Amino acid sequence: MPAVVAVENLKKHLRITFDTDDEILADAIAVAEEIVESYVGAALDDEEAFPGGCPARLLEAVRQLAAHYYVNPEPVLIGVNAQPLPMGFMELIGPHRAWAF
After folding, report:
1. Of the N and C termini of the chain, which has fewer Cβ atoms inside 10 Å?
2. Among 45, 49, 37, which residue's Cα sits nearest to residue 6?
3. Could you give the 3-state DSSP secondary structure of residue 71?
């Protein structure tokens, strides 16, 4: 399945003009898409789940999370205060959460 968010789109989001990190960006997009898909319970390119196409707020959530992983590649940050996921991430994906009991 091709990524719903293209590397070029993420590069614009991050204001990156070089191609050196394209593979790293693609990996960050793949991880971010998996996390969002797991949370909402559907593939982002699933036309049955999203008849009008993937909602813009989910695309933005993928961009924000992928950017977060690119800018903060290490699991631990030393010398800085802990930060939550990018501001608004949960608000972006929350309305699309798949609830199961």
Report:
1. C
2. 45
3. helix
